[in-house]
Amino acid sequence: MIVQDIIQQLETLAPLAYAEEFDNVGLLIGDKNTAVKGVLVTLDCLPEVVDEAVNNDCNLIVSFHPIIFKGLKSINGKTYVERVVQKAIRNDIAIYAIHTALDNAFEGVNAGICEVLDLKNKSILMPQTGTLKKLITYVPHAESENLRSALFELGVGAVGNYENCSFNSEGLGTFKGNKESNPVLGNPSEMKQVEETKIEITFAKHLKPVVLKTLFKTHPYEEVAYEIRTLENKNQHIGMGMIGDLKSPMPETDFLEFVKNKMKSAVIRHSKLLNKKIRKVAVLGGSGSFAISTAKSAGADAFISADLKYHDFFTAEDEILLMDIGHYESEQYTKNLLVSYLKKKIPNFAILLSKINTNPVKYK
Ligand SMILES: [Zn+2]
Description:
Layout: H1 3-13, E1 26-29, E2 39-42, H2 47-55, E3 60-63, H3 80-90, E4 94-97, H4 99-103, H5 109-116, E5 120-129, E6 132-140, H6 141-152, E7 167-175, E8 192-204, H7 208-218, E9 226-231, E10 234-251, H8 252-262, E11 269-270, E12 277-287, H9 292-297, E13 302-306, H10 310-314, E14 321-324, H11 327-331, H12 333-345, E15 351-353
Parallel strand pairs: 2-3, 2-15, 3-4, 12-13, 13-14
Antiparallel strand pairs: 1-4, 5-10, 6-8, 6-9, 7-8, 10-12, 11-14
Helix pairs in contact: 1-12, 6-7
Zinc ion binds at residues 65, 286, 327, 331.
C-alpha cells in the first residue's frame, strides 16, 4: 500500500477536479510512492495531530482542511502552520487535504450532515455547471456496441438515477486516406463509405482522461472521429450544500433542540423564529452565507451552516430560519465519514480517527 493507493480511493469519492479554485487540495507534504504504515484522519492538521500520527505509527494524515493554504515564505516555526510542516517533514509524514473536493461531492460533507439529521430525498443545493461533458463519436455500426460498453464501464452516461444513457443514430461516414494512411477498412487513397453509428454520451469532466484513453483503445479507426463539448447543464451529482426533508415536520424550537443535540453544538445562533413547522432543510457545512438566497429560493424552511455574520441574519427576511451551528460542529462528522469510507475500501488496514478535538473556538 503506497500513498497513491489511498489517494486514489479518496479521489474516487471526491475527485479534485471539483474542488473550488481558491482551494489548496491534494498531497501537500510527502511523496506519493511512499509505503503507508497507517492513516490518521483529522478535520484540521495541528502540531498535536502530527504527534498523534507519530505515536500511532501513521505516516499519512488525511486532513479535511488544508494546513498550507497560501504561500509560505519561511519555515522556521513561528506560526502553527510552519510548525506542522516542520514536524511532518522531520517525521516523514505525508499530509493530504481533501476540503472543497469533498464539500462538492455527492457523498461528502453535506451528505454526512443529512445522515446525522436523518433527512430524506436529499439533493445538491447548488449543483455545479460546466462540469458535464459530451462525447460524440462515429464508429462502424458493427463496433458500436463494443465501444458503448467500454465507455459505460467507466461510469460514462450516468444521469441522475440512470446509468448507461446514450443516444445512437445511424448514418453514412466517408473517408479517403493518402499513401501514408493505414485504414482498417478499404485501401489507402480509396474513397470509402461506411455505415456508421453516431454515439452521443455525457460524462463528468474528471473522467475525460480515461474516456479518451478508452476511446482511442477501443475505436477501430486509425484517425478516431470524435468531438468533446462542455455542457451548461447542472450536474446533479456535484455541488455545494444539500437539501432534504425531515422525516416528520417539527416545530422550530424542537428543531433547534434536535439539531443542537445531533450536531453537538454548544450554542446555535439563529434568526427570528417564524412560528411555522420545519419540513425542508438546507445544509452547508462550513462557511455558508453565500448559499442563503439559494436555500430560500429552494423552499427550505431552515438553513444550517456556520460563520454567518450579523448582517447575514437580516437576510432571513421572515422567510427562513437561519442557523449558525459552529464551523467545527458543522464539519465534525466529515472525519468519521472518511474513516468509514476508507475502512470499507481498504479493510484490514490501520485507518485511525484522530481523537483530538481541533475546534479553535471555545464556549463559556
Ligand atoms: Zn471548514
